[in-house]
């Protein structure tokens, strides 16, 4: 197929998304029109088995379960108590509660799987307190927007499930691969907060909390830690599949909600409705992506692109550097899920053909999607934290506040490129 036609179809799909057409409709439309153009009406007969197969894939059962897990922890107040406990331990560091923002985002990310949910949850708890204490709103919004991105890097991650489903890679290995990069990126964010606070000469610090109170506060960190241990432990030791580990996490979360006395029908109804809404959107997009993949595979688009890139003489490192620029620009105009499902069918075969490890590439894609969450004009986390700020300032505070973290992510991606073992070592021992 002519590369011009491939490019035209890709940009037509992006154009439909940018003018507000639903992601699933845009992708399915391009896939169906392209398939009919190449094979005629009989192409439609091949779509039904694909849709049926996707909807019956056991792997995708984990998506609504992980979404429900995050909803339970959010609506039961566990996230609020978690923030208070971490503030007792991290508040004395240079930067004060800004460290608590990052720490809470990392811990909530270990049970949520959604960056937007992480930023919204921790932001709702943190921003009123930060505003009252006189913290810079720019620094506060930036730390929350960037901390929220950890939701799709620290496992469990819905976006890793989507990547694994589209590329037929192990979800367990992807989850395990995200642990070390997630912890390192969390540490780098906190290091930036401490360094910039000290350099400003006005480092905010919270009052010292007595040791006995800090120790008692640790009980509020037990629920997310136990849920994370159950989910990742069952995966790492091969006890459960991704869907089964998600179910175990939901059961554990229900136990903690029951223990807190918050288990009421109203709470469960809200959790179920929100889970159905989010999961339905994700699964529709995944189905549309598989329809597009069918057209891509039947028409030889991936092979044509792979041959074209190979003809350029790019090394694996050169390709990754080029893709960094590509995703950085694309992330300014597309949301995370759109970026994944629109580009992975093309970029994955090219990367693996040049010898890039598929698990490493999955973490790379997630990092690039994280960048998209905090780059304007379509950075979802920027809009989320701006929408819940207690004052009435402009969104430029969130944009400028998140900029240093975006630069840290770019440098961190280069570090992973130089030392790929940071990603591949842990899943290699499964």
Automatic annotation (TrEMBL):
Spans through the membrane: 6-39, 59-78, 98-127, 139-162, 174-194, 215-239, 245-261, 282-302, 308-329, 336-354, 360-386, 398-423
Pfam families attached to this UniProt entry: DctM
Subcellular location: Cell inner membrane
CC per GO annotation: plasma membrane
Ranges of residues in domain TRAP C4-dicarboxylate transport system permease DctM subunit: 11-422
Molecular function via GO: transmembrane transporter activity
Main subcellular location of this protein, as a coarse class: membrane
Highest taxon above the source species: Bacteria
Keywords: Cell inner membrane, Cell membrane, Membrane, Transmembrane, Transmembrane helix, Transport
Membrane-related topology note: Multi-pass membrane protein
Described purpose of this protein according to its UniProt entry: Part of the tripartite ATP-independent periplasmic (TRAP) transport system.
Family: Belongs to the TRAP transporter large permease family.
Quaternary assembly: The complex comprises the extracytoplasmic solute receptor protein and the two transmembrane proteins.
NCBIfam families: dctM (TIGR00786)
Protein name as catalogued: TRAP transporter large permease protein
